[in-house]
Amino acid sequence: MIGYDAVSLAGLTLQDQYFAAINDTNTSVAQTRCSGIFGLGFPLNSVIWTDMFLNQQQVSRSRSLRRDVVSRIDAMRKRWFDKSVLGISSFRHVDPPSYQSMPQLKRQVTTSSSAIISSFGVSGPFIPRLVSLGGLASPMFAIALQRDTIEIGGNEGMLSIGGLPSGVQNESLTWVPVRQYALQQGGLTQDASVEAYPIAWEIPVDDVFLDGVKLPRSQLCSSNISLSALIDTGNSLIRGPPDVISYIQNMLGGPHFACSSPHTLAFQIGGRMFPVDPRDFVNQVHSGDAQVCGANLAQTDVPVLGGGGYLYSWSLGDPFLKGVLAAFYYGSFTGLSQDPPRIGFLSTVPSDAGQRLEDAVSAASAEQNDLPG
Questions:
Q1: Where does residue 9 rank: exposed (0-12), middle (13-18), buried (19+ CB within 10 A)?
Q2: Is 47 left (phi over 0), alpha (psi -120 to 50) or beta?
Q3: Where, if anywhere, are coiled coils annotated (predicted)?
Q4: For position 35, what pLDDT does the model report?
């Protein structure tokens, strides 16, 4: 059920903001006294924007969609939303290679891309709508996540909207471009001045390392697909290609290993190394035993060239994000060639993070307690 009302967040207010009305949930939203949840991605990935856009197009005779296109989008929307409800929308291994994401079906719409982009300011999600309407000092947001396991602390949990946090300079971050999808990759119908469009917060990755050793590239993925990663605040793990995840686990000695042995998984992005804090890389396996840990890793599907889906092979969730300040810059929806989207990172992992993990494990073991969490 989609409704609309004035929505305010951190002093920012929008009238007639569309949102889904929920009367049943399997999350802890109600218990934690949250008013709801909202996404920070591009509007093309919004279920609500899709519903509103299709509805507005269907009732407009001058800009109607072909019925066959509408039926395909409607069917894919239901499939994608079912996946999202299950909490698995950030990885794709449950579907065959022929699977096409809902955003890709949206982009088969016969309506011009300019009409689609102009709708972002009417029925887009809250933050992208503010961007579209010019309601932010800068079209961006930044996040930092606090560590809530192993050793409580680290970054101050923070969401900064419309600019970087106070005291942080733009040049202190390493900035990389967001992958844009051309028409042949499932992008929007192209305007003369724009040949590709961003779909998700997906960025190029130079290489991946474990304890200083460069990991091999996945043999399950075409060498013609450049290495990239989704930066996903809705993902509680780090997900990667099945063969590379298995390679990592073999390097660790198996799925379980000593908590007190720090390991550093690092991603080289924009020529700079961004390590996952060893304290965020692990989780305690058994209650009452602070000595045995597992890695916060999971397998995901590899991208398929020409398969119609996303092209990233890694999804970097909370374990990665707890060790950085991450800034997400939307750029200009109407002038991508002049002001393209990008993501900036500033590592916050201390040089003695490994020793801090060892100390936390020793303290928990001495008191015969579990690691904090």
A1: middle
A2: alpha
A3: none
A4: 79
- Distance (Å, rounded) from C-alpha 261 to C-alpha 291? 10
- In one-letter notation, the amino acid at residue 228 is S
Take residue 152 and report the two structure tokens written for it: 């409580």
The span from the CA of 194 to the CA of 335, in Å, is: 8
**What mean pLDDT comes out for the span 27-40?**
82
- For residue range 67-83, what is the model confidence (pLDDT) as tens digits? 544 444 454 444 333 33
Q: Which two tokens stand for residue 188?
A: 């929007």
Predicted TM-score of the model (pTM): 0.86
pLDDT digits (tens, 9 = 90+) for 337-369: 889 999 999 999 999 999 999 999 999 999 888
Q: Is 364 exposed, middle or buried (0-12, 13-18, 19+ CB in 10 A)?
A: buried
Q: Which residues of 245-283 are buried (b: 16+ CB within 10 A; e: fewer)?
A: bebbbeebeeeebebbbbbbbbbebbeebbbbbbbbbbb
Check if the beta carbon of residue 118 is closer than 8 Å to that of residue 133.
no
In this structure, is the dihedral angle defined by the CA atoms of residues 264, 265, 269 and 271, taken in order, positive or negative?
positive
Q: Are the C-beta atoms of residues 298 and 245 closer than 8 Å to each other?
A: yes
Say if residue 155's pLDDT is above 50.
yes
Give backbone dihedrals phi and psi of 187, rounded to 5 degrees, phi first: -75, 180
The whole-chain average pLDDT of the chain stands at 84
Residues near 129 by Cβ (< 8 Å), separated by ≥ 6?
Answer: 14, 17, 43, 120, 121, 122, 123, 135
